[in-house]
Design a protein that fits this description.
Layout (H helix, E strand, L loop, with lengths): L3 E2 L12 H10 L14 H35 L1 E3 L11 E6 L8 E2 L2 E2 H14 L6 E5 L13 H9 L10 H12 L6 E7 L17 E6 L8 E8 L10 E9 L5 E10 L2 E10 L4 E8 L5 E9 L9 E8 L3 E7 L5 H8 L4 E7 L13 E7 L4 H12 L3 E6 L5 H10 L4 E2 L3 E10 L21 E5 L2 E2 L7 E6 L4 E8 L2 E6 L14 H13 L9 E2 L4 E6 L10 E3 L4 E2 L2 E5 L2 E7 L6 E7 L1 E9 L12 H7 L6 E3 L2 H5 L1 H10 L1 E2 L1 H21 L3
Parallel strand pairs: 3-6, 3-7, 7-8, 8-35, 16-17, 16-18, 18-19, 19-26, 27-34
Antiparallel strand pairs: 1-2, 2-36, 4-5, 9-10, 10-13, 11-12, 11-14, 14-15, 20-23, 21-22, 21-24, 24-25, 25-26, 28-32, 29-30, 29-33, 31-32, 33-34
Helix pairs in contact: 2-13, 3-4
Length: 677
């Protein structure tokens, strides 16, 4: 290997070698007066001192010249290159410190996060003062998305604290690359992490403009059992009914977990759910019955006892038990009395009836289901309001009348991208198939019940469904033509009957075992229900109903200890509350608009719950084809300053040059003092 120089322009200073030569010529050649008493020793003394002086002067000259040579070389900074990417000039360095919950585990009684911060400091201190730095964590704060000075970088590292936020490493690397695009050269990245398998997803990372240095920190793998998810087996929990709550417990380690105690806390009471055995790297699902006596917003916690990892032992949930389910019946002549009787027999259901000539469009948004009761035609105004209602998550059940024409109904159906009605057919048809896999009829009937009486009609409209995608048949005639279908329209659903609802043509309304559960399930179905819980991250938006009042309005989010104003993102009849990264602690948060309007439950991200870490060898296999990715072993991390110097500049020799300067200065001093002339 050939020696190279980082600053070769300093080699011009070798001209200074003339200085010791000139000193030698004009100082050591001066005559010196020698006193003696006997002339017979003159020749002998003159020859002896002349030889000794010449030797001494030459040695001093050599020491001085070597001192100058090594001093110049020290400034030129010679090195022996160990690779092809030798860096000179300003370097742009990005250091990612993993501050997720998994970094709270300890190595030799020291949290991994503290070790990571110390390594980050050593990296920064190994670079020059004029280099540029980025400090990045899982918080993805805006202030970290810019280059800062060395002093500021060290301050940022001191301020790093454990965070509930966690992102896959592919997003971390992409965020580093985003800032590095403003740099022209010398782009260097360090990723200090425990490298959990759950976040290591950079297999497809292809960019080679940034040098990626992976610095794995290893700690003993902790056992961890956690509450993975909680959900209701149904869209809307109803008051005074047995609502199924499903709980999934997962084991993040390879060892089986026995007798895991699961509890349910609500309204100040704790209910044990029993003991569960969870296989290693597996999950178990349990179901409990929740019977709420009151309506309104409810909150609860599903919890387990697990050690040492405990951040994911609690799972907070919040949900709305509606005080009433609203159904709007729109009719042309007289409302269908069987529909009225069916709805009035359902607890917590209210029925609002409006004539098609006296509609109150502003009331549509409050309805859970709109039933078009034997409508012969749909006006342009009504069609526009219904389509907007559907797109915002509403449900519409359409029964065409016996006098309906395709031209009066089909423009609305066409706007919904649904099937088109053909010409009316007067023929007796029997429904032969019920889709019990659809939500409308699922879990309604006892599996062993065989004799369900299905509807019969005397006239129907054939449905043109050629090349139609997304149609779900709920009831089907014997001739395979649909009797009742469902379509997705925006966030909502359109249910279309091909027969009128009137009893003289269709006995569906008098068939209680089909009609009543059908209306019930259609009304409570929700393609737009709020989730039971959110995971804490910087990209959470909470959906709430747009207030009816006009003018400016301000929402507030609080958990009793912390309070902030979320961003507002209008979306039709709803408002999206952008909480960003303002939520840091798991729990229940109240949403206020002058008064409480809803609740939202937040939990720590379960992405960190899998405690399996990737070893150095496993990391090396993730993306071996990318030459820009390098893994720094513990030995290289221990001497990070030397590792960086050798990596960026090869084997540096300037320290040896300084040693040579000191050595030859000492030799000069010793020669002058102790070597007698």
């Amino acid at each position: 290997m050939n020696m190279q120089f980082l600053y070769p322009s300093f080699l011009w200073a070798l001209l200074a070698l003339a200085i010791p030569v000139l000193i030698h010529l004009f100082y050591f050649r001066r005559f010196k007066r020698v006193y003696f008493t006997n002339v017979r020793f003159l020749k002998e003394i003159k020859e002896e001192t002349s030889n000794r002086n010449k030797l001494k002067n030459l040695l001093v000259l050599l020491a001085r010249m070597l001192t100058v040579i090594f001093l110049v070389l020290a400034f030129a900074q010679p090195f022996i290159p160990t690779g092809t990417n030798i860096k000179s000039g300003i370097r742009h360095v990005s250091v990612f410190v993993d501050n997720s919950f998994s970094m709270t585990t300890q190595q030799d009684d020291i949290p991994l996060l503290d070790i990571a911060k110390e390594k980050a400091r050593n990296i920064i201190q190994s670079y020059n003062d004029d280099d540029k730095f980025q400090i990045l964590t899982h918080d993805f704060e805006g202030k970290h998305q810019r280059f800062i000075s060395k002093e500021d970088a060290l301050t940022y590292i001191d301020d790093i604290k454990s965070s509930p936020s966690v992102y896959p490493l592919s997003q971390v690397m992409q965020r580093q690359l985003q800032l590095m695009q403003s740099a022209t050269s010398n782009k260097i990245s360090y990723i200090i992490s425990d490298y959990q398998k759950s976040i290591c997803d950079f297999e497809s990372y292809q960019d080679t403009s940034v040098e990626i240095n992976l610095m794995p920190l290893q700690a003993p793998v902790s056992k961890n059992v956690f509450v993975d998810s909680v959900w209701f087996d149904g869209p809307v929990p109803m008051a005074n009914q047995n609502n199924k709550l499903v709980i999934r417990i997962r084991n993040g380690s390879t060892e089986d977990a026995e007798d895991v105690k699961v509890t349910f806390r609500k309204d100040g009471q704790e209910k044990p759910l029993g003991l569960l055995d969870v296989p290693g790297l597996g999950a178990v699902t349990d179901t409990m019955i929740v019977k709420d006596q009151k309506t309104g917003w409810q909150q609860a916690v599903v919890a387990i006892n697990d050690y040492p990892v405990q951040f994911d032992d609690d799972y907070h949930v919040s949900y709305l038990v509606p005080d009433t389910i609203r159904i709007l019946q729109i009719y042309e002549t007289t409302p269908n009395r069987y529909l009225s009787a069916a709805v009035k027999g359902l607890p917590q259901f209210t029925l609002n009836q409006q004539s098609s000539t006296q509609l109150q469009f502003q009331s549509f948004r409050q309805q859970n289901l709109i039933v078009l009761d034997d409508i012969s035609s749909i006006s342009t105004g009504l069609a526009g309001e219904l389509i907007q209602y559907l797109k915002d998550g509403g449900k519409v059940l359409l029964f065409p009348s016996a006098t309906a024409s395709a031209g009066g109904i089909n423009p609305f159906l066409n706007s919904c991208n649904s099937g088109q009605l053909g010409e009316l057919v007067k023929a007796r048809k029997e429904v032969s198939l019920m889709n019990t896999e659809s939500f409308v009829f699922r879990d309604v009937y006892i599996p062993t019940k065989q004799n369900i009486t299905l509807p019969v009609t005397s006239l129907s409209f054939p449905l043109n469904t050629q090349a139609l995608v997304g149609q779900e048949n709920l009831l089907t005639f014997r001739d395979a033509m649909p009797a009742l279908t469902a379509y997705r329209v925006g966030e909502g659903q359109l249910f279309l009957s091909t027969s009128p609802l009137a009893y003289e043509y269709n006995n569906l309304a008098t068939n209680a075992e089909v009609f009543v559960p059908m209306i019930y399930k259609m009304a409570i179905a929700s393609a737009h229900s709020a989730p039971l819980a959110y995971f804490i991250s910087s990209r959470v938006v909470i959906e709430t109903t747009k207030p009816s009042k006009t003018g400016d309005f301000v929402f507030k989010v609080t958990n009793g200890k912390e309070e902030f104003l979320p961003g507002l993102l209008p979306s039709g009849n709803r408002i999206l509350l952008d909480v960003g990264s303002q939520i840091r602690n798991a729990g229940i948060y109240d949403i206020f608009l002058d008064e409480p309007v809803s609740k939202a439950a937040f939990n720590y991200n379960r992405l960190e719950s899998d405690m399996a870490m990737l070893s150095e060898s496993a990391l090396a296999e993730i993306n071996p084809a990318n030459p820009s990715i390098r893994i720094l072993s513990p030995a290289l991390q221990a001497n990070i300053a030397g590792t960086i110097t050798e990596k960026d500049r090869g084997i540096a020799l300037w320290k040896w040059c300084i040693f040579g300067v000191l050595l030859f200065l000492a030799m000069e001093t010793l020669l002058i003092r102790f070597l007698k002339s």
